[in-house]
Amino acid sequence: MARALELARKGVGQVSPGPLVGCVVVSPGRDIVGEGFYLFEELNHAETIALAQAGEKARGGTAYVSLEPHAHHGRTPPCTDALLAAGIKRVVAPIEDLNPKVSGKGFAHLRAAGVEVQTGLMAGEATQINEAYLHFMQTGLPFVHLKLAVTLDGKIATRTGDSRWVSGPESLAHVHELRHEYDAIMIGAGTAALDDPLLTDRSGLPRRRSLLRVVVGDRSRLSPESQLVKTAAEGAPLLVLNGDLHSILKELAARSLQSVLLEGGSGIAGEFVDAGLVNKVTFFVAPKIVGGIAAPGAIGGRGVEKMADAFELERVQVVQRGKDLEISGYPRYTKG
Ligand SMILES: NC(=O)c1ccc[n+]([C@@H]2O[C@H](COP(=O)([O-])OP(=O)(O)OC[C@H]3O[C@@H](n4cnc5c(N)ncnc54)[C@H](OP(=O)(O)O)[C@@H]3O)[C@@H](O)[C@H]2O)c1
């Protein structure tokens, strides 16, 4: 399963709006006889690629698949049919695919045909690699990941609005890897005006769709001379959206965009936090102090009254990046 998950990750940037899926086929003699992973443009699913490699050696064997195989006719014929036709006797898949067309039906089809189905193995990892896809399937809204760089005193810029650069080169390089995982990147009109950012994915890794750059605010605040507007004319997509956050997210969902990296500033970040619409948080904390009561803190908005009401993060991870600490986790909005 660890290998199936590793294969699935090879599709990062190239599967949306589908899920990351990896498959390993093991013969009855316990040899790995086939491997595959999904890429949206290739049409073949991870299972069919791995089964084709395995050929007759798959008969009586086990398929390890990182997500429930589908049993419906979509862009491709059902993978459950391919597994049955290849003579697979056991399928190990950690989690259900929450796509309503698939959910539970793949496992049911296999079981009805006499295949042993085992679920739950490495379910945490399998859920995490597809967290955006699963969230989108469950809620119909894109997964929102708030990413900010802060100083030790919690500031995202100095009192003059200067924010280049809060974090060090290792963190900045990692931001491009993060951007590569997302369908859209979003900032507020304040950041667009003050920072004149480019907001492109410069990871150098292949991606199926261009990263859509979204500015929330009034179009009149975007200068025609800004990098965002100039590069839009050269083909890097840019969308300016206004209105309540829910309808902004719905607008992105209608474009099959399943994930958004929200890169600030504090105004828009505060609105998202207040609305309970942030699904994941990553802060790069730099060991610097800028001070100044007028220097913006990371999160604006209304905020909470009591410390007991703070949004706590769960499944917290801490990674050292050069001199910075990258702290990430998932906000828990309901108490108890
Ligand atoms: N360190 C970091 O990671 C980081 C990241 C980003 C930014 N920054 C810094 O943060 C500062 C900017 O923060 P900020 O709070 O001033 O700006 P911001 O959050 O980027 O933008 C706030 C503006 O966005 C618009 N907006 C927000 N929600 C809206 C909605 N629902 N509908 C329409 N418009 C909406 C409003 O524009 P209007 O006022 O025009 O209505 C609002 O004033 C800069 O100094 C920048 O350098 C730091």
Mean pLDDT value: 96
Structural class: alpha/beta
Question: What value does the Rg take, in angstroms?
Answer: 22 Å
Q: What is the chain-wise order of helices and strands?
A: HEEHEHEHEHHEHEHEHEHEHEEE
Estimated share of beta-strand residues: 15-25%
The shape, in one word, is elongated
Q: Class of the largest domain in CATH?
A: Alpha Beta
Give me the count of strands: 13
Bound molecules: NADP nicotinamide-adenine-dinucleotide phosphate
Strand order, largest beta sheet: 9-8-7-10-6-11-13-12
Distance between the termini: 33 Å
Number of domains: 2
Sheet with the most strands?
8 strands, mixed
Name of the CATH architecture of the largest domain: 3-Layer(aba) Sandwich
Question: Could you name the CATH topology of the largest domain?
Answer: Dihydrofolate Reductase, subunit A
Entry keywords:
eight-stranded mixed β-sheet, Dihydrofolate Reductase, subunit A, alpha/beta, Cytidine Deaminase, domain 2, binds NADP nicotinamide-adenine-dinucleotide phosphate, 22% strand, 336 residues, five-stranded mixed β-sheet, elongated
Quick structural overview:
By secondary structure, the chain is an alpha/beta fold.
Describe the structure.
The protein is of the alpha/beta class and 336 residues long. It has two domains: 2-129, Cytidine Deaminase, domain 2, CATH 3.40.140; 140-332, 3-Layer(aba) Sandwich (Dihydrofolate Reductase, subunit A). Helix content is 28%, strand content 22%. It contains eleven helices and 13 strands. It has helices at 2-9, 46-54, 79-85, 105-112, 123-129, 131-139, 169-180, 189-195, 227-233, 245-254, 266-274, and strands at 22-26, 32-37, 62-65, 90-92, 116-118, 143-151, 184-188, 212-216, 238-241, 259-262, 280-286, 312-321, 324-332. The strands form two sheets. The chain has an eight-stranded mixed sheet. Helix 3 packs parallel to helix 4. The longest helix is centred in the middle third of the chain and has 12 residues, at 169-180. It is elongated and about 70 Å long. It starts with a helix and ends with a strand. The model has no long low-confidence stretch (mean pLDDT 96). Bound molecules: NADP nicotinamide-adenine-dinucleotide phosphate.
